[in-house]
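Hi R.,

Here are the chain sequences for the assembly we discussed:
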Amino acid sequence: MSDWSLEDIAGFVLDEARRAGAAAADVMVAEGDSLSTAVRLGEVEKLKRARGKHLGLRVFLDHRSAVTSSSDFSRDSLVNLARETCSLARVVEADEYGGLPDPAELAREIPDLDLFHPREVSAEEGLALARKAEAAALHSDPRISNSEGGEFDCETRHAVYASTLGFRGSFRTSSFGISVVPVAAENGQMQRDYWYSAKRDFAELEDAEEIGRTAARRTLRRLGARRVPTQQVPVVFEAEMAASLLRHLAGAVSGYALYKGMSFLSGKLGETIAPSFVTVVDDGLMRRGLGSRPFDGEGVRTRRTVIVDRGKLESYLFDSYSARKLQAQTTGNAARSIGDAPHVGSHNLYLEAGTTSTQEILHSVKRGLYVTELIGHGVNPVTGDYSRGAAGVWIEDGELTHPVEEITVAGNLLKIFQDIEMVGSELNFRAATVSPVIKIAQMTVAGA
Amino acid sequence: MVSESGRTPAVEPRRFFLERFGLSENQLEGVLGSAIAREVDFADLYFEFTTVESFSLEESTVKKATKDVSQGVGVRAVAGDKTGYAHSDDVSLENLRLAARTAQAIAREGSDVGPVAVSVQRPTHDLYRLDRPPIEVALTDKIALLNQIDIAARRHDPRIVNVLASLTVVEKRVLVASSQGYIVGDVQPLIRVSVACIAQDGSNRRQGSSGGGGRSQFDYLLEADRAVDFARQAAAQAIRNLSAVDAPAGEMTVVLGPGWPGVLLHEAVGHGLEGDFNRKKTSAFAGRIGERVASELCTVIDDGTIANRRGSLNVDDEGTPTGRTVLIENGILRGYLQDKMNAKLMGMAPTGNGRRESYAHMPMPRMTNTFMLAGETPPEDIIRSVSSGLYASYFGGGQVDITNGKFVFSASEAYLIEDGKITRPVKDATLIGNGPDALTRIKLVGSDLQLDTGIGTCGKDGQSVPVGVGMPTVRIDGMTVGGTAA
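And here is the predicted structure of the full complex:
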């Protein structure tokens, strides 16, 4: 079926699903091309090219549902897939909330979000960019003695979604990225850090050399790191780290976490969960956004949803299933990996910029921690208990002093959001989830 | 060991792939020839056909079933420390030739060297021969298992308000054809059940989790009430967590229970001993073979040859037979985990640790089952020896920065030790330490070595692979516990 378009294949699979007994069905088909290149210490290390495709079918028989997926698009295989999905659905139990979304919620038109900027990049060009970025890091300071390499990656993707409600939609995306991981050494201590740029449009990538120099600065500032004693202090989260707090928030406002009883924000809708200068937004429609999509994984129109409005928990995020479970409306946040039923995911998630500069935030701290790295998975979604490994820079009298490592920062997310004391004025949409710098009034730092 | 019986796991995958994709052995030899240019050290083809089935239960209902079938081929050419890789899910001779040329482009001068002869090898091990592959077990039996789990967990205590359980069954067929003259295949079954329970008492809500499995028959989960025990353990953990107090913060004596807390070894030393990081000298353990990195009570092994374990393999994903590698012997660093490329560049032998998530990924050195050998102290004596500290018996995930050696792992079931006794449960807390130094603080090693129940998945560079860990009860003096009670 190599001469069929993805749309044709989607239509064929839906027809076969009906023929096999499905009362309703939807299908997601995607194909992509990628190039991935890496250099290390100036030499080519990796060159990878790939083409891939995948199709996922979900069927409903009465209220029973199953999902199957395959990368084999031969006619026989697709016919078989449709039959097998229906057999699988027959063995699971009925779920009265299951089903396709309310047709009124479907995207009526597919907005052009400017997500596709195809540009042929040769392996040589990719390697040259990776090399340039790494070289800038290596040459910026003699203490940058080693490297895990510089990389350039690019990818294009074409996704089609169709359902027995009559919805047919497709969109194409492109993405380009440069990253560098330098290693610095001094007095027997070795440190690494990274920097990157990721864009929909090749032309918007940050300058490769600037990425390398930033990676080097971030790595060098970790040299000489030591532990600090256990204490309770204000903690300032660098923008990249502050974004991780928003990801925990997104997990807790997911309709699935809520109906399963696995969210520390359960029952808090309408309550004040943060100070009045905190507004968190999820926007699926941002032009060129790394998290944008013209419709969600069920064909529902995407939108801009204010999750936290001036401190008040204003909205949860739903797909159609979790919305039905909780007598709510979908917010167009059905995220879908090809081989699975939808779940809830944020699109472009951000904390609105405040008015305080990073300098002013640091100056407000008599003694505390500026967090530049977090490791581990120490977040309990049910209780919001938070305890993660951290590295950063110690703040004394409003100034960054020495780097710190081998410490943890701990608290409870409910209190952490309440305790946001300042929000930085710089917000840069360099990833799908972004935040300005934020200051938390007090957390427990455990160390020596 | 190759068995005497009629089943030959080596030949089966070869026939399977050649028939499936309409290829002949001569054609494979020709493709290997076009992947290997003058500057290429070796090239290989990795064919994969994987079926993943999963069922999940929530609110006492199995309402979700998924099945994924993926197939494809990865073509690799290695020249020195350079790797060219191309993969495709559309396996045809034409695409294989194209992929081979793409992979070979890594070498400066490309020219076809003609076909490379390969001979069929059988894996040296036969670690998971199953009478009945789990993928063939009736769907209704799989669903019934999840319902049993739900019932057992809810019976444990009426405060269990929700049970989330899932069963995943995998069958992965692979075939590796190498320009070094061999072709070897394997069929790798894997099952895993996961249970999470939510306990609620008034507005206090807590979670407990458990699970297990292996490269085993489906019946393994039913034998000795295994799956039902996972349910009870998850429920008991959730109930105990209802009375958890704030975890302490700061440096203290920590006792780790046997089994799954062996994730300590995986993070503190395992990753840092992977060959790639040591060849590049970006690991905190680089150049330290022969040095003391642990107390003399510690001997740490990585063993991919334990029958039916989650982390075991007959051959790794480069076709090398898996082995048993001593990483640390009586506290002294002895070895690294190697794939073919890094072993060659370091002048060492491959250890059978070249693994990849799928045909779409390049192999790299990974752990299999990583554990510490038993010591001599009865576990009760270890707990009795601590006047004030933390006992941690179950963990969520961990992570390590291999360059500065700092690692974390997060306790999801832990208790205070007061006057030699385990007392109150504490809330989740992350433990942090320094890899090259953490094991030197081990003061007592228990006689109770256990391997984990078969739940671990390790992530590295965006690739996930199943792994195992194990450990006896150990006492570590001076580990930082990241609670809130300062």
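The domain at 123-220 of chain A is CATH 3.30.2290.10 (PmbA/TldD fold). Chain A touches chain B through 79 residues (CB under 8 Å).

Let me know if anything looks off.

Best,
T.
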